[in-house]
Amino acid sequence: xHLQMFPRHLSRLLGALALAAVFxxxxxxxxxxxxxxxxxxxxxxxxxxxxxxxxxxxxKGGEHGGPPGAAKLYGGYRLTEIWGVEAGWVQLGRVxxxxxxxxxxxxxxxxxxxxxxxxxTGRVALGHGFSLSGKAGVSLGRVSAKDSSDTNFAWGGSKAxxxxxxxxxxxxNRNLALTLDxxxxxxxxxxxxxxxxxxxxxxxx
Length: 205
Description:
mainly beta
């Protein structure tokens, strides 16, 4: 699936996650007290959603000027029921800039943004399977032209920036959780900032 189609299919994702929650409720009840405590050790997750890329009027993308799609793959290790570490790869979507020639013609320059990140994580259980989470670490961002020969693409480059995030989750059962995350990746190049809102699933081993 093309990354720019993610916002169009977000409603389908939400429906699938809701269905998973319904089927998982039986397992959640069967686990009882065990479902309230998190699984320590390794986990993996996936998230799909939208990106916000800036500057507001320059770094933007998506079909018809809509928000770009975002996809996140990550893994981590929960050291305690509160603290852990996490690393991930995030596809942040399209950016573009336009240039106007002396004859008035406009050239469109397209590219893509992405990030690798490493962060420490924290989690606070709220009860009944719900919890709040956060992360803080470093993002290694990169913006590159869609066509490597496009030397007029002005938003390209690499940048290391702080990554900060907050989130919420609902445990379907002892191992599986629904997640909602809001993450800021700072500058992913000298001229583009990035943030995402994603929903997904996390599985603890």
